[in-house]
Amino acid sequence: MINLSDKTKLVTHVQSSINNIMLAIEQQNISRKSFSRSLRKAISGSGVGTEASSDQDLYREEYHLTPKNGYLQSQTMLLNGNPIQLTDTGNIPRLDPVLINSKSPISITPLSIAFVVFPDFVAQACG
Hints:
6-stranded antiparallel sheet; 2 helices; alpha+beta; two-stranded antiparallel ribbon
């Protein structure tokens, strides 16, 4: 997601119909783990893969790129608020994400680019 506005913060939610079904089942106190396993098995045709425990919150990975001091022509870019600088050996540094609860909205600050990864997102086209 790219936010080229210099004043407006973008906020959005992401959901899929399958994740909505799982949430509805969860709210009816049916075991999410067994439902999720059955649903994934039916969609993928296999049942292979990792599944989150029903007691465990699901997280997404976010990578937010912003220019230092909000100056678009800055020579320094920040990744999640930290300057991206080559290591002493000239290599690219570790690019660690921020983990955010998947149920919370995605917030993109002005003059930034965000890459959002949903490791537990269930989509029929990807199954």
